[in-house]
Amino acid sequence: MDLFDSIGGDSPESAAGAGAPEVRAAALRAEIARHDHAYYVLDAPTIPDAEYDRLFRELQALESEHPALRTPDSPTQRVGGKPLAQFPAVRHRIPMLSIRTETDTEASGALAFDARVRRELGLKDEDPPVEYAAELKFDGLAISLRYEDGVLVQAATRGDGETGEDVTGNVRTVKVIPLRLRGEAPPVIEIRGEVYMRRDDFERLNVRQAEAGDKTFVNPRNAAAGSVRQLDPGIAARRPLSFFAYGLGDTGEWTPPATHGEVLDAIAAFGLPVCAHRAVVQGAQGLADFHARIGALRDTLPFDIDGVVYKVNSLALQQRMGFVTREPRWAVAHKYPAQEALTMLRDIEVQVGRTGALTPVARLEPVFVGGVTVTNATLHNQDEIDRKDVRIGDWVIVRRAGDVIPEVVAPVVERRSGELPRFVLLDRFPTCPVCGSHVVRGEDEAVARCTGGLFCPAQRKQALLHFAGRRAMDIEGLGDKLVDQLVDAAIVKTPVDLYRLGVLALANLERMGEKSAHKLLAAIESSRSTTLARFIFALGIRNVGEATARDLARHFGNLDALLAAGVDALQQVPDVGPIVAKSIAEFFAEPHNREVIEQLRAAGVHWTEGEPQGTVAGALAGKTFVLTGTLPTLTRDEAKAMIEARGGKVAGSVSKKTHYVVAGAEAGSKLDKAQALGVSILDEDGLRALLNETDTNG
Ligand code: IVH
């Protein structure tokens, strides 16, 4: 509003126009709802968080000044309900049905359903295929949302299908559910779907619950169901719930479209989340293909599904088919093999890794889960055992999804018979089960470690495998079976022993003829000549990966300089912080490790030296860059290549070790961080200038 507007205050527009609080509040509500839809439903944010917060605060301020503006569909009113003693009952105008389940998880399950539908409809073999809508079977809690004149007025659980519970207060807190429908809303419409929890949200929630000393949930479905049926909406609001719509209830005067596929389109247009993994398919083959396609991507979905759902697409045909005892004849849920199963935890043993870390492993009563028979599952570490409160003798839920290592999810505490002692790893394994050395657990560490180092055969085996690895000394043919034999027969104790092997010792091993022995010896021979970076990496120093090994080689130039470096000197290396520096210093302080290094050198292992800083490698050697935003002419890869060609390094995140941040359009938090840390910031011209400068000087 400009000066003239405020003087000429009698114009009709300025009296009840753009400046009027009710108009502004309505505009803010609409705008916030639009951003919510873009952010939560479409997953495509339209404005920066700060701008959104500003709009939200403006609306809050307006409403607190004019409480009458606080409409039920205002985004500020999501959490407002008081804790309840119990949920009021809701009678469903249209019963909430359930679905028959096809437990045959093969394609034949789809064929059986199609055959049944065709029979019910009296179709002959020569009649055309039936059209189906295929979608996912979400694993949560069914909810019916009632909108009147576009505003959410009630949310109810399924209950027994006739009567459910009124959980409106809780459901209003679910951000993906709009409080007002978009577009032209019918006077009455009930939209049905599933409240669920994403796996990542579930895991974060469980960590938070455990940290607060609250009970953790067994799986996302229990967490979602428990949260919806939580009597305090304030608590429900803090639970990360999501929702997918999959059908309709009462629609009043409104005439739905002719097919289920179009019903879902209409629901999406009203602003509700409808899962994108859906299809309209023809006949049994179409169903079986959908089942297979979703089965293949199941593990990549951010949420759990236990099957897919097929529905006859035509609503007229659905009506004709009707239902038997709460289950429609026109729909079926077609399952997948379960990813979770129940079994008995017989014992807990430990596995010793390369760095001596002791990983507790559950020995299970064999159980078929995720398509294989599982007998072992990881328990990660003591903290996890404590958090889950898993005890030997418990019935446990085991999960195996995709290629992931099976894990013990949780015990079924209700089935625990009598008192079972807590499992304390350090009590059960005060010494390493492999070598007998002491086991210790650092104060701020989650893992317990064997102190045996290379004396411990388990660590020795892992260390040898790492040493021989493709990205380390690259000894082809030295795999785990061979390393097991070499270590178990005490032929090889340290990497040096590899260079002393003869044909005889090797040829006598299992599955090793003279020919393979010669081949392996040749591979060992050629590994004698390597690079300093590979050699450093091959040593298997804790926290020193390939990239750090390369940085160390480049920075120090030769091994003796690295051996002589103290913690402070080590921290001069890009990306080496106090923890990494400490690991390196500790490794080289160990006389045994130095001895192995000297023996390797004596055995003829040699390398081309890394280039020390500033000499040959390029004038940007030792300089770390971070790229952020879009540069006017260079792509990220081009800029990276130009920096690296001059010996510089491009890192992913900004720290105080970053030398330059190259920022383009829409640079985000990396630029903020660079400014906060006082790191030099370049635009594309600045970067080009720096590169040219180094070209002439270097
Ligand atoms: S339709 C036509 N579609 O499975 C019957 N249900 O036993 C009405 N569910 O209570 C349900 N995904 O909680 C339908 N895409 C989907 C579903 C789905 C999950 C749940 C729902 C229902 C139960 C059926």
Description:
- By secondary structure, the chain is an alpha+beta fold.
- The chain folds into five domains: 5-77, Orthogonal Bundle (Helix Hairpins), CATH 1.10.287.610; 118-335, 2-Layer Sandwich (D-amino Acid Aminotransferase, Chain A, domain 1); 340-428, OB fold (Dihydrolipoamide Acetyltransferase, E2P) (Beta Barrel); 457-608, Orthogonal Bundle (DNA polymerase, domain 1), CATH 1.10.150.20; 624-697, BRCT domain (Rossmann fold, 3-Layer(aba) Sandwich).
- Helices cover 38% and strands 20% of the residues.
- The protein has 28 helices and 26 strands.
- Helix 5 packs antiparallel against helix 11, helix 15 packs across helix 16 (480-488) and helix 20 crosses helix 21 (546-556).
- It is globular.
- The site of 2-(butylsulfanyl)adenosine has 15 residues, from strand 3 and strand 8.
CATH class of the largest domain: Alpha Beta
User: Could you give the distance between the termini?
Assistant: 60 Å
Going by CATH, the architecture of the largest domain would be 2-Layer Sandwich
Q: Count of helical segments?
A: 28
Q: How much helicity do the residues have?
A: 25-40%
Please, how many domains? 5
How many strands?
A: 26
| Overall shape | globular
Q: What is the CATH homology-level superfamily of the largest domain? A: DNA ligase/mRNA capping enzyme
